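FW: tagging you since you asked about this chain on Friday. Here's the raw sequence from the shared folder, copied in full. Didn't touch anything.
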Amino acid sequence: MEHEQEQEGLSAARWRTAISLTLVMLAVYVGFILLVAFNKPLLGRVIVPGLSVGILLGVLVIGVAWLLTWWYIRWANALDAGIRRIARAGAAGTGRR
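HL: got it, structure written out here
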């Protein structure tokens, strides 16, 4: 019973995190697409020869995706220890290994 509550808590935390990261990535991506659609002059502004604001923001969108993925993997690996502990405790309680 106690292990089921812990497992439900971990599952809820995983969903909250997944939804939060999805919303962050969606906001970044949609924001970039809206800039492309409605403010082309800004994106075409040259920062240094060969590098415009649009290219820089495009690279940042990809960088944010990588960063969020890295963060989620680290978080999920830390969560995995709790899941294994619950699984071992549940298996010990039922006599299975």
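FW: The radius of gyration is 21 Å.
HL: agreed, and The longest strand covers residues 46-48.
FW: great, closing this out.
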